Amino acid sequence: IQSATNRIQSITEDILSLEALSTDEDLEATDLTLLIQSVIRELTIQGELDDKRLIFVTTKNVPDVAAIPGQIREVLHNLLTNAVKYTHSGGHIEIKTEVRQAEICVSISDDGYGIHSDEIDRLFEPFARIITAETEHIEGSGLGLYLVKQIIQRHNGEVFVDSILDEGSVFGFVLPIVD
C-alpha cells in the first residue's frame, strides 16, 4: 500500500510540474552553481547519498543562465535522484559544470547500471521506464525525464544522454548564458 501511495504521489507531482510549464513565468538570471549545491544539500539531508560518493566539479565564476530557477532546480533534482537510484551501493556520481562559449553544460555521470543503446531514445517519452532484472525494484513514475526534456527545451536548451550497459550513464543539459 505504501509503495502504491508513493507512486501515485510521484505521478501527481510530476503531472503538476508539467502543468506548471504552461504558465508564463519570466526567465531571470540564475546561478546554476547555487542551485546544484542546494539540491546536493537536500539529498544529503534526506540521507539519499549515504552509501554513494558524490563529487561536484565546477569552474570558478560560472556565468548565470536565463532560467526559471524552480524549474531548473526540478531538472537537477530529477537527474540527481535518478543517478542516485540507478547507482550501485558504494558507487560514484559526478556533477560537472562547464562553460562553453555562450552556454553552460551540466552533466551528471554515474557508474551505475547503464542503459542499452537501443533503449535510450525511449527515455524521454512520457511514462517510459527501462526495467531490467537489476532495476525492477526501483520505483518511479516514468515522467521525470520527460519533464526534464520539456523544461530544458522551454529554456532554449538541449538535453543529452550517453550510457553503456553495466558501466554507467551521463545525463545532462546545455543552457544559454545570460547576455
3D architecture notes:
With 179 residues, the chain is of the alpha+beta class. Helices cover 34% and strands 25% of the residues. The protein contains four helices and seven strands; from the N terminus they run αβαββαββαββ. It has helices at residues 2-20, 32-45, 69-85, 144-154; strands at residues 28-30, 53-57, 65-67, 92-100, 103-110, 158-164, 168-176. The strands form two sheets. The chain has a five-stranded mixed β-sheet with strand order 2-4-5-7-6. The protein has a two-stranded antiparallel ribbon with strand order 1-3. Helix 2 (32-45) crosses helix 3 (69-85) and helix 3 runs antiparallel to helix 4 (144-154). The longest helix is centred in the first third of the chain and has 19 residues, at 2-20. The N and C termini lie far apart (50 Å). The mean pLDDT is 85.
Topology:
Elements: H1 2-20, E1 28-30, H2 32-45, E2 53-57, E3 65-67, H3 69-85, E4 92-100, E5 103-110, H4 144-154, E6 158-164, E7 168-176
Parallel strand pairs: 2-4
Antiparallel strand pairs: 1-3, 4-5, 5-7, 6-7
Helix pairs in contact: 2-3, 3-4
Q: Report the portion of residues in β strands.
A: 15-25%
| Broad shape | globular
Helical proportion?
25-40%
Low-confidence stretches: none
Gyration radius over CA = 16 Å
Mean pLDDT: 85
| Content-based structural category | alpha+beta
The sequence of SSEs as H and E is HEHEEHEEHEE
- Count every beta strand, where a strand is a DSSP E run of 2 or more residues: 7
Strand order of the largest sheet: 2-4-5-7-6
